[in-house]
Specification:
The chain is α/β, with parallel strands linked by helices and 423 residues long. It is built from 14 helices and twelve strands. A seven-stranded mixed β-sheet has the order 2-8-7-6-5-3-4, sandwiched between helices. Helix 3 packs across helix 11, helix 12 runs parallel beside helix 14 and helix 13 crosses helix 14. The longest helix has 26 residues. The chain is globular and about 65 Å long. The structure holds pyridoxal-5'-phosphate. The site of pyridoxal-5'-phosphate has 14 residues, from helix 6.
């Protein structure tokens, strides 16, 4: 319930549109019911958070003979050595990219969430449209709603791959309705997606660019690579929009984060924007938000990237997440969720299992199934939150990020016991 407003306060349109984030509600439910196992929050693993590594990094910073500038304000665009290092890492992943060019176009943000907000804030007005993947990152979708922006899904086939024929038809429909010029951007999560765990292939990314171009829609593209480094065994092979030829004419914003692969509490994200005017606008807006991401956190990130601690940590957590994923996956399988008509693919990275329930089973936040899960002591993210439009009601996102393996097995057992009651 919205709190009553003091008579003297009149909120702006944005203030009025801002709805409480669903994730806060799910987290509150977990707190209200002791013993509830949460498969909802996209938190990272607590037991492997790099405490000792950060202590060493702080000591290394404090031992520097120079002035402790890392405890002073930094620059709006981000700490130069960190920008250089992140640009070099990306160029090492995609050798056709030039590290010096990337560095000039790279900004450091307060988590990649801020990069997403800056991108949308500088492109979209209320009533505009953003094309989004299907399913998509639900916090991004909530952000669009908060900005008064409409999300329109990129159609997919039964296997979840971008369906170019259906996209053609959808874009033609938007043009006929006079809405094509309201399309301001396209957004997708391309590596071990939240929530689907899928990675886009180069062919899919290319066909998407070609289809948009055929419709004259050379609009800005935002590629969210938050989970690119969080593969279990092998990285996803596809290059990003920064190096795929089909995207060359498009304004491109590629973003990623150091929170998921290292420490989410540091909230350091980053993005590379190919279009000068757009980058400048985002930097100006960032100047209004905070005039620079926490310099200390950036200095820590730079330190751990420089001395190899970051890479050692991410190598360690890849196998931890792989084991946790398998604990949950096999618990669901072993308890007979498939036999109850549920379907999901085993992920190769990321933090999520994306489950399709039998058609007709409503898994929404207010559904009988969701209530039964909470009563059984387990909570999940209802999948309908993850669709920009035309949301099916029978999907569920399960996160294996935060719980330990034993708890994951117990949460899986509770989930399947409930699912069987509804089969
Ligand atoms: C797909 C995706 N993008 C961006 C973010 C934002 O993460 P952060 O702000 O911690 O970098 C998240 C966080 O869950 C995410 O799942």
């Amino acid at each position: 319930m919205k709190p009553a407003l003091a008579a003297s306060i009149a909120l702006s349109q944005l203030g009025r549109r801002a709805a409480p984030p669903t994730i806060a509600r799910l987290m509150a439910m977990a707190l209200e019911q002791p013993g509830l196992l949460s498969l909802a929050a996209g938190f990272t693993d607590n037991t492997t958070l790099p405490v000792a590594e950060l202590r060493t990094a702080i000591e290394a910073l404090a031992a520097r003979p120079s002035e402790p500038e890392f405890l002073q304000y930094g620059t709006n665009q981000g700490r130069p050595p960190l920008r250089r290092r992140l640009a070099a890492r990306l160029a090492a992943m995609e050798p056709s990219l030039d590290a010096a060019g990337l560095e000039r176009h790279l900004l450091i943000t307060n988590g990649s969430q801020q990069a997403l907000y800056l991108a949308m804030q500088t492109l979209c007005d209320p009533g505009d449209i953003v094309l989004v993947d299907r399913p998509s990152y639900f916090v991004f979708l909530e952000m669009l709603a908060g900005l008064g922006v409409r999300a329109v899904s990129l159609p997919v086939d039964d296997g979840g791959r971008i369906d170019a024929t259906a996209l053609d038809a959808r874009l033609a429909e938007l043009a006929r309705a006079g809405e094509a010029e309201r399309i301001k951007a396209v957004y997708f999560i391309s590596y071990f997606s939240n929530p689907s765990a899928r990675s886009l292939t180069e062919a899919e990314k290319t066909v998407l660019a070609e289809t948009l171009a055929r419709h004259g829609l050379i609009v800005p593209v935002v590629e969210d690579a938050a989970y690119r480094e969080l593969y279990f065994e092998r990285p996803a092979v596809a290059s990003s929009v920064l190096s795929l030829p089909a995207w060359r004419e498009f304004p491109r914003f590629y973003l990623s984060t150091l929170t998921k692969p290292f420490a989410s509490g540091l909230k350091v994200g980053w993005g590379v924007c190919t279009e000068g005017a757009w980058l400048d606008a985002m930097l100006h807006a960032k100047g209004h938000h905070d005039f620079g991401t926490a310099n200390f956190n950036q200095a820590l990130c730079d330190q751990v990237l420089a001395d190899g601690t970051f890479d050692a940590h991410v190598r360690k957590i890849r196998s931890v997440y792989a084991r946790k994923m398998r604990a949950l996956h096999t618990a669901l399988e072993g308890a007979g969720l498939n036999a109850a008509g549920w379907r999901w693919a085993e992920p190769a990275g990321g933090l999520y299992l994306w489950l399709q329930a039998p058609r007709g089973l409503d898994t929404g936040l207010e559904s009988a199934f969701c209530r039964a899960c909470v009563e059984a002591g387990v909570i999940y993210v209802p999948g309908d939150l993850c669709f920009g439009d035309d949301a099916p009601r029978n999907f569920v996102r399960l996160s294996f990020g935060v719980l330990g393996e034993t708890e994951l097995r117990e949460a899986g057992r509770r989930f399947v016991t409930t699912a069987k009651r509804f089969a």
